[in-house]
Amino acid sequence: MHLSHALTHRGTVRSINEDAYLELPHLGIWVVADGMGGHAAGDVASQLVIDGIQQAVEHLQPETITLDILKQSLISSNRFLQQMSEHEFDGKVAGSTVVVLWLYQDNYHLLWVGDSRIYLLRDQQMKQVTKDHSQVNDMIDEGLLQPEEAESHPLANVITRAVGVDSQLDIDYRTDNMKEGDVFLLCSDGLNKELNDVEIERTIKSGNIIDSGMALLHASLVRNARDNVTCILVKNTPKKINSIDDSDKTIPIFG
Q1: Which residue intervals define the domain PPM-type phosphatase in the entry (predicted)?
Q2: pLDDT at position 242, please?
Q3: Do residues 36 and 96 lie in contact, with contact meaning Cβ atoms separated by under 8 Å?
Q4: Would you call 38 exposed, middle or buried from its count of C-beta atoms within 10 A (0-12, 13-18, 19+)?
Q5: Number of domains present in the structure of the chain
Q6: For a 10 Å CB count at each end of the chain, is N or C smaller?
Q7: Whole-number Å distance between alpha carbons of 77 and 50
Q8: Could you list the residue range(s) of the whole structural domain that residue 218 is in?
Q9: What is the dihedral of CA 235, 171, 201, 121, to 10 degrees?
């Protein structure tokens, strides 16, 4: 059984929210997309990516969903965004990052493009299970930059992949085993711009997914949330509902 809680906010600086998200717990699918700020129609781009995935899977049964179906949805969105850029935005780029979490049976599956992230909290230890497609991350890989220098680097906002930018979409994916009690966090970079990994881990460990989600959003807003902020917390719970903590039984959805 999977419980989830999603929140999004435009932040304190941006005039519109270019983030979008999708929750399909009955299918085991959650998505966060972050439209590219400063480009044409970032909010349109992120919502198009979200809508594409929803339309691809909403008529399916969980056992018929595949990684290829999810990938093809992103490839179709990439093609459509390129056409929109050419015909509706005078050649200006309309792009979006995306992270997808798909849970089925005892496995979790991740797909991502860009620098939105997925974290996994397991046995009270959190780790980032996606890898940012960003200029600073490439510099870290090449030994030119230390990880602790990344957030403050002048190129921190430069991403190297996004849906809608190139004719060929390079999608990263990962599949691994899932454990009872695992908690996944999907987020746009507006969250990790304001909170470091230690702060995020401490917040997730401190309470149930509703309290943790509200605390993450509140903390980012207190720090003036320079970007849009979106987060989804997903908990893999025991199959018997009577063994679930009361505070996790009712999961409201915040838009």
Answers
A1: 3-236
A2: 46
A3: yes
A4: exposed
A5: 1
A6: C
A7: 9
A8: 2-248
A9: 40
Residue 188 located in a structural domain: yes
Can you tell me the distance from the alpha carbon of 248 to that of 186, in angstroms, rounded to the nearest whole number? Answer: 18
pLDDT digits (tens, 9 = 90+) for 90-149: 778 889 999 999 999 999 999 999 999 999 999 999 999 999 998 888 887 877 787 766
CB 244 within 8 A of CB 237: yes
Flag whether 254 is in a domain.
no
Identify the CATH number of the domain in which residue 234 sits.
Answer: 3.60.40.10
Q: What is the pLDDT of residues 212-244, one digit of tens each?
A: 999 999 999 999 998 999 999 999 987 654 444
Amino acid making up residue 216: L
Q: Quote the distance between the C-alpha of residue 42 and its chain's center.
A: 15
Measured in residues, the chain has a length of 255
Q: What would the mean pLDDT of 23-34 be, rounded to a whole number?
A: 97
Q: 117-122 and 183-187 as β-strands: parallel, antiparallel, unpaired?
A: antiparallel
In whole angstroms, what is the distance from residue 206 CA to residue 238 CA? 20
If pLDDT is split at 50, 70 and 90, which confidence band does 255 have?
Answer: very low
**Dihedral over alpha carbons 143, 149, 152, 156 (to 10 degrees):** 30
